[in-house]
Amino acid sequence: MADTDETKEQEEQEDSKQEKQEDSKAEKSDEKSSRGRLVHWIIMAVVVVLFAGAGFGLGRLLAGNRRTETAGPSKQDQSAQVEDLTVAGSATDSQKNWYYHLEPVVANLNELNVTRYVRVSLILEISSEMDEKKSQAFLDEKKPILTNWLTIYLASLGLEDVRGDGSLKRIQSQILDGFNEKLFPDSKPQIKRILFREFAVQ
Asked: At which of 22, 50, 85 does a domain end?
């Protein structure tokens, strides 16, 4: 009986050793397969990133060439268009500036806790060097660009930025500079002053 018990114990020990060895082999093979999968995914990610970067760089390179080709003529056309609007020999009539009315623009102010908005109507004082009839058509064509710029500019202001006489003068000056830059980028500024017809904060 003692011999059979000992042989059973030895068999059980051998079986448990074999099971442990099989378990460790299975764990090692699982580790190898998971490492293999991980390496496979890393390689795929690196390849995708490389191809995406190459595609992006090539797209920027080709788009940059097109922009430089098309940007030149449009600036020349715009400066030629502005030259067509000027009146010859009008330097003596500098007192006869004319006015162009912009439609009201409404924009939310940049305030966190409250919803406040500003409604602005502007009058542009245009230089007498500009032919009034031709320039009216030019400004009508460019009105969406001016309205868009003004809306974005006003939306960047806070409530403190629109209070007081000094703030309004600063706003007039910045609008004047922005409009002249948008309309006459490569020529003499033709907007002389910005006048407020309406400036309401609510």
From this structure: 85
